[in-house]
Design brief:
The chain is an alpha/beta fold. It has helices spanning 3-18, 22-33, 37-52, 54-65, 74-89, 94-109, 111-125, 129-138, 143-151, 155-166, 174-181, 217-224, 233-244, 263-275, 286-296, 310-315, 342-345, 348-367, 388-395, 406-413, 432-435, and strands at 188-191, 209-211, 228-230, 253-256, 278-282, 304-306, 321-327, 369-379, 401-403, 428-429, 441-447. It is built from 21 helices and eleven strands. Strands 4, 5, 6, 7, 8, 9, 10 and 11 form an eight-stranded mixed beta sheet that branches. Strands 2-1-3 form a three-stranded antiparallel beta sheet, covered by helices on one side. The N and C termini lie far apart (58 Å).
């Protein structure tokens, strides 16, 4: 079997069987297979493209097989998905795509499975991509289901994104957003302030951000000693906004409450070091806490990384911190372009489970603020329940916290003007189709400079 296809198939199987993350396992699989740059690019396209459009391909496979994909052996189904992507979305020769996927099916479940795969793929290869798209859309039960099949997004995700855009009076941008989700992002690097200088090409907004100069970005990272890292420009912008929300006083205490995997922590640590502030970090998951420590190695100084539940950690330190980043666990719907399988893993139940945790983390962080301190509440999701809804719930009944104009703060931190929608709240929602970043959300909340009494600090515990 062609090595790139084997790597892609193995990644599909790991995602299906072990809930692996393609963006984490694919680089290792490519290295282990010793792929040259051309084959590595092919393996990446095959794996990511197949995962990204899984829902559309499943509808085509079900039609061609005349059975539900739930009734197809998972290993055989992944072989069919891989071949369908090659037949309908790449220039790979159809005979190669069919033959190798038939061999994969046979290896997984015997000659009968190979014959079944061959029949299904021959049917798929007889029609053009446009004809298949028209066929599956004609069977859709609603306009949203048709859009789901066309854009390869689950219906519930489409509706959540539409609501978020409608809140900005930009619902007409929905299809542009869905299209942007299906394009692999360019690699963006961060140059840690005071430790590295950004190269070329510069990214338009974050003064610390620039594009990978070509080749393997890990070579640039290794040569820098870690002072240059891969980090989405949106992630850089929200960290810079927290640092720029008010003049930094020497001796300030900062906290990154949900720090893993450490990219924003390292950026804040570099800024704190240069500004005379002291940063602490917290990450409840030990493996992610190790990633935070690794990210901090490039920054001189000692940043303590705690491994506690962020809610109890913050609640046990009332009034201690001047700036707190709450990069809350979320559905990740804002990073679908770099995590192609995520859209098919998440469900509305995940939102319902995460929102109470997000509210509790934000509430605890607000209580941990010193008078005049600022919390940046951040999610990599534009889902309104995880963004505006959480902020509103955390502020309910509090008169000791006010909301800052995060739009003005971010704009003042940016290198060029940004198209930031104004819904009257002052909050920021970034978008891949509009800003070329992940769909990061930011709200900046400031504790009153003086306390009326001690009761407010205990609310929400």
């Amino acid at each position: 079997m062609q090595p790139a296809r084997r790597v892609a198939y193995d990644v599909l199987r790991a995602v299906s069987e072990s809930d692996a993350y393609a963006n984490l396992i694919l680089p290792t699989a490519i290295a282990d297979a010793g792929l040259n740059p051309q084959d590595a690019a092919l393996a990446t396209e095959l794996a990511y493209g197949t995962l990204r459009r899984r829902g559309t391909y499943d509808a085509i496979i079900a039609t061609a097989a005349d059975r539900s994909v739930d009734d197809i052996d998972p290993a055989v189904l992944d072989a069919l998905r891989l071949a369908t992507h090659q037949l309908l979305a790449t220039r790979v020769a159809s005979h190669a795509a069919v033959n190798e996927s038939v061999n994969l099916a046979s290896s997984a479940q015997g000659r009968g499975a190979g014959s079944f795969a061959n029949a299904v793929l021959r049917r798929i290869s007889r029609e053009t991509p446009g004809e298949w798209q028209e066929r599956i859309e004609s069977a859709a039960r609603s306009d949203d289901e048709r859009l789901s099949l066309r854009s390869a997004h689950p219906v519930w995700v489409i509706r959540a994104l539409r609501r978020a855009l409608a809140a900005e009076d930009r619902v007409d941008e929905l299809e542009a957003l869905l299209e942007a989700d299906n394009v692999s992002p360019e690699v963006t690097l961060v140059a840690l302030p005071g430790l590295a200088e950004p190269g070329e090409p510069r990214r338009p907004y974050a003064p610390t951000a620039y594009g990978s100069p070509g080749g393997d970005p890990h070579r640039v990272i290794a040569a820098s000693g870690g002072t240059v890292r891969v980090q989405d420009e949106g992630s850089q912008l929200v960290a810079l906004a927290l640092a720029g929300a008010a003049p930094i006083r020497e001796g300030e205490r900062w906290l990154d409450l949900c720090a893993g995997p450490g990219g924003k922590t390292a950026l804040l640590a570099a800024i704190a070091r240069r500004s005379g502030a002291a940063l602490e970090a917290n990450e409840i998951v030990p493996t992610r806490a190790r990633l935070v420590r690794n990210a901090l190695r490039a920054v001189p100084g000692d940043v303590v990384v705690h491994e506690e539940d962020g809610r109890s950690f913050a609640s046990s330190r009332p009034g201690e911190f001047d700036r707190i980043l709450v990069d809350a666990p979320c559905t990740g719907l804002g990073a679908l372009r770099r995590r192609p399988e995520a859209r098919w893993r998440k469900s509305p139940a995940d939102v319902a489970e995460l929102v109470p945790l997000q509210v509790e983390l934000l509430t605890a962080a607000l209580d941990a603020l010193a008078p005049g301190g600022i919390v940046a509440y951040v999610t990599c999701s534009p889902h309104l329940a995880e963004t505006t809804g959480v902020v509103q719930e955390a502020l309910r009944g509090r008169d000791d916290v006010s909301e800052l104009d995060a739009r003005s703060v971010m704009q003042s931190s940016a290198s060029s003007p940004m198209d930031l929608a104004d819904d009257g709240s002052g909050r920021v929602q970034l978008w891949p189709h509009r800003h070329g970043t992940d769909a990061m959300f930011l709200a900046l909340l400031q504790r009153s400079a003086t306390q009326v009494d001690g009761d407010t600090a205990a609310e929400g515990d």
